[in-house]
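WARN retry 2 of 3 for item q-0093 after timeout on previous attempt; input resubmitted unchanged.
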Amino acid sequence: MGNPVTLQRLLAMQKKIWRFRLDTDAETAETVAREQLKSISQISRIGSLISIPGTSYILIKICMHANIAFAAFTIFCVAVMAFASIRNYRRQARVDHDRIDYEKSARMIVAEAKLNAAFASALVAVPLAFGQIPMGLDVAILGIGTVIIGGFIFGSIPRAQSWYMGIASLSFTGGFLAAEGTAALGGVALFLFVTLCADYIYRMFFFNFVQRHIHAAREKKAADTVRLLLHDYAEQSSDWLWEIDEDFRIINPSARFASAAAREIRELRGRPLTDLFEDSTERNFLIQSLDSGEAFRDLAVPINIHGKLFWWKLSGRPTPGTNGSRLHIRGVAADITRAKLAEERVAHLAHFDSLTDLPNRALFNQSLQRSIARLKPGQKLAILYLDLDYFKSINDTLGHGAGDLVLKAVASRLEKAIGVEDVVARLGGDEFAISLRHISSDAQAKRQAASVIRKLSEPIMIEGQPVVSGASIGIAICNAPGLGADELLKSADIALYHAKNNGRSCVSVFEESMGTAFQDRRNIELDLRSALQRNELELRYQPLVNIESGDTIGYEALLRWHHPERGLIMPNAFIPVAEETGLIVQLGEWVLRSALQELCNWPDHLSVAVNLSPSQMRSPNLIPTIVSALAATGVDPSRLELEITESVLMSDSQNNVELLHKIRSLGVRIALDDFGTGYSSLNYLRSFPFDKIKIDRCFVEDVDSREDCRAIIRAVTGLASSLGMVTTAEGVERDGQLDQLKEDGCVQVQGYLFSKALPATEVQGRVPPDVETGNPAENIHGDRDLENSWARPEHKPGTDASRKTG
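OK item q-0093 returned
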């Protein structure tokens, strides 16, 4: 017993063949239909010739046996068939099957099949049925041949085939039965079986015919699509197709390839592909890839077109050559010049500053490290680390656009100021570095630095007006190859810091002591960041004394730092660090809140003075901090006195004056500190009605021995009195100073003569809080953007630090 799965597939196949329907897209169906017409046209023309012997044989036999009537009938049938065959032959010879209507042609062919079947079978069946010709083997063969040949002729169109074989087989069956009766049943059955088998075979042939032509049509359609896509790709794509022979010579270059290469097609044909490209490492890679005979991808090579450098990307793979030749190589090419330039731009930006086009820090470090490694015994290398002195002011007054122009001008001047083997770089912001590769001494490096400063101090014309931007320079010297680039730059940076502390347009050479001082400063910065949390800060208070009565009328808050290892640290050691690092913000708010909190414990007639720095005045949180601190403590605002120095008003004076008016509107008093040391002291008194003027200690120190100091103090006290302002003299140390100040009309004094800065517990009249809270720092912290210049060193007679006691 056979495999049921195989049998099932066989039956399904037979059903598909027997009931075949063309199920495909319209274009493919039309293609197959026209192939049907072409096939039946060719076969029918041959079939007309094949039918001549059979027709002649039956005609002769009828003429021998049949009467005249049947002979005439036979001749008529032959004439009709001959006419139809000749007409069909001639029509099929001139038919353009690509233009005719398929359905109309198919209907005509079906009609011809019916007509041919009727007359062809009648030639034999009718005379046989009326006994005009004897039944024999030749007649049976003619009948079977007529059915089979006719079915074969019309087999390209199943409808025509079925009609022909059906009409012919029925006609012959009728003739056989009429001539032989029941004796012909066996032969008829065999005849019908053969007919059915032939019909099935023809249908199977037609099925294969259709499948073959469907496959061919689809292959042609796919080939046309590929050809169209390739043509479209060649015409519209940014890539170009290329092919070279076994000698790497260009074969049949396309118009686009020639256009891209800016050459004529005839110039490219037969030319080595590699000759198109510039002599380079990339071209050598291309030659190696071609020689290897293996596929390659995305190989970038430079090509010169009309004197301009372009970049092409090539990909290729070997393919069999024609006529048995060696492998050809086919591939694509694309212009990647824009992408290549972008890539080079990115690489450039990774190593060069985008504004000045100078090397950046990364490239400078690499170059510096190589220079250090090449140092020979006796050779020296110097690093000049420079910072522009007035750059922030230029940005603030003229804008960042002007600042950028200044940086470009500075970069240009620096490039002209160095030697061929030296390197200048922009490290960021307004910081630059110069590597002097060959110097003989430290003095030479200093001379070079001084020359750079002179060049940078020359005015730069920005938008029609001169702009001056000097520079400060720190120098680090290297005379051994073991030093690292980062370490050398760090040393130069420390020297720059030292130079800027000495003033503008200064030069400083790094020394080990600078490194030690810098490290100490760094340690102070690190410890100061957590000093508040560790409760290491303390406020002390120096009395303000009424010069007439000798009574204490208030105190000035001064900051002290109790370091767990260093002990007591004076403000002049840590306040500058706090200002530079921004830690002054937190310290400032803590001092303001702590001072007001302590003021709650004092008698109502006492006030507290807290200093404000320029940075604190620029903070948008200054007024909110003052308001919140006053609200939290409930202190009368008039008991708080804020002291500012003239330097506060020197920068953005109009905005600062407006801010002082807002603070004054809260009821807080404003004092001008260190009066007489600025550039426009009298102008500041005109700009804002201060409550108090504090005379700087430089005038107080010699007031009892120098007439000029007494004259200045008399002038200040007289001016203050006429303006309704109180005067306070700072730094009073001797009785003679006090007497002279009293004589000259000074209202208040403070200094070491009366008291050093006291802990809060020693303030006269202080009432301890009901609940002991310890150091106010435990409960009062602030982190708004506030800054202070209130911290002053405690006065010690005979020392520089005592010059500012408040």
